[in-house]
Amino acid sequence: MTIPDPETSVRKEREDTDASLLAERNQADAELAHTAAVVDKDQDRIVEVASDRAKETLRAARALADRDLTRTGAPAKVRDEVQATRAAEDRTIADEGAVAAQRLSVEREEHQSALASILHLERQATDEGLLAERARADEVVATRDDFLGMVSHDLRNMLGGIALSADLLAKNATNMGDHGALTVRHAERIQRFTARMNRLVGDLLDVVSLEAGKLHVTLRTVDAAQLVKEAAEAFQQGFVAQGINLTTTVAPGVIMVKCDQERILQVLANLLGNALKFTEHGGDVALSVAATEAGAHFAVIDTGVGIPAGHASAIFERFRQVSTKDRRGLGLGLYIAKSIIDAHGGSIWAESEPAGGAALHFILPDAVAAPA
Questions:
Q1: Which label site among 98, 149, 264, 361 has the fewest CB atoms less than 10 Å from its CB?
Q2: How far is CA 63 from the centre of its chain?
Q3: pLDDT, tens digit, 9 for 90 and up, residues 115-127
Q4: DSSP SS3 for 358
């Protein structure tokens, strides 16, 4: 079984971005069309009002002229000439109005065409810039991943040499009395720091594998109790060194799960490591497994600082930390754990404990429980 191809997620993200961009463009077009319609309507109203006022002024002037003609007793010939002149003026006004309306229509079309051309050029430049930026981003990511893979490999080789040298130093110092005991303690500290650095390098490599779609899980049937035992034994010394009580609980019966043993041990290590980082001296951490209808239910519950409200899901995001002031780790462990559990078709989640602390749970669905 493999995790979903990250290229699909990237493609989906880009499709969502394109859809959002298209929606924004359609909205902008609608707003532009509405604005243009409002402007055109306002212009038409201004022209209409001006025309009505001009006509009213002309009618008033003609009415005064007719009254003067009546008072002065102008002959019929003069009146006919006035009417002919007015008819010619009306035709001229009508022709000028038609020409003005046609000119205004042409100007509007040219204006709209110019706006459309400018908008098209801007969008074309935006699209070209977006494509170029995406190509550069893909190239940077590919180069970064290759570089990270090579550097991580070299770092692991050097860390292996440091760990081996520390082990030899501790063995040679066992017969050197008090000074030798101090040397042994320092050598053990070097080994612990080396192990932590090696886990960090492993986390970085796993992130690269996740992004490249190359993180595979090999399923086989494993005893869940054995998983809990191995994980607890690996961390027992670290918990004792920090004065934290680690307990394990395995429900009665035999719980067999189909999983990638090394990957699930990695998940348990990440959860225990998280509890170790955030639990104070004198605190408690409990690791348990039980059979449920949904599958094998693993849990790591601590009495540490807990999870702030609203961050129960965010802690599983890559490089996410609940506080910018807290630099304990890079925020990769829980992200990798979730990716591994997702690859098994399981579920993982976090809860805050009522009395303080945090509880991290995950379920492996392919499990079979049998009586002890």
A1: 98
A2: 76
A3: 778 877 777 877 7
A4: strand
Categorize the per-residue pLDDT at 267 as very low, low, confident or very high, splitting at 50, 70 and 90: very high
Place of tokens 């049937």: 221
Residue 141 has a pLDDT of 62
Top pLDDT among 276 and 61 is at 276
Q: For the chain, how many helices (H) and strands (E)?
A: 6, 8
CATH class as words, domain 220-370: alpha beta
Lowest mean pLDDT: which of 139-143, 216-220, 241-245, 269-273?
Answer: 139-143
Rg (CA), the chain: 40
* Residues 221, 256: Cα–Cα separation, whole Å: 6
Strands of the sheet with 295-302, listed across from one edge: 245-250, 284-292, 295-302, 358-364, 347-352
Residue 227 has pLDDT above 90, yes or no: yes
Q: Roughly what angle, to the nearest 10 degrees, separates helices 224-241 and 261-278?
A: 30
Chain region(s) in the chain for CATH 3.30.565.10: 220-370
Dihedral-angle region of residue 357 (phi above 0 means left; psi in -120 to 50 means alpha; beta otherwise): left
Q: Are 362 and 337 in contact (CB under 8 A)?
A: yes
Separation of alpha carbons 290 and 317, rounded Å: 27
